[in-house]
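We both want to read discrete structure tokens more fluently, so let's practise on a single case. Would you supply a protein for us yourself, any chain you care to pick? Would you write everything just below, so we can both look at the same thing?
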Amino acid sequence: MAQSYVQVTTTTDSRAEAAELAESAVAERFAACAQLVGPIASTYWWEGEIESAEEWMVLFKTTVDRFDELATLITDVHSYDTPEIIATPVVAGSLDYLAWIAEQTEGDEPGEDPDEV
């Protein structure tokens, strides 16, 4: 397992924005898969106050090599001033699934089939 893998998490205040982030990341091949979870209840400090909000979580499956591009996409598309972008290393996983992530994130062009590269 020479490739390094991460699960990247972000949250947003609408299902529509979460779906847009997921679709964009997968279309650009910055992530092999994106899962939407929600709604979830979030409590956090913001501008000196404790806030509570309903949010949607997006979990992206990708490689360390694609992280910077994915983080840039999230920052550019996201409506929050400071979006959550947290990469959690994948310590172990199904070898077939990890190989699939690597294959799906290899393409340089949106929609490019990595098997034809």
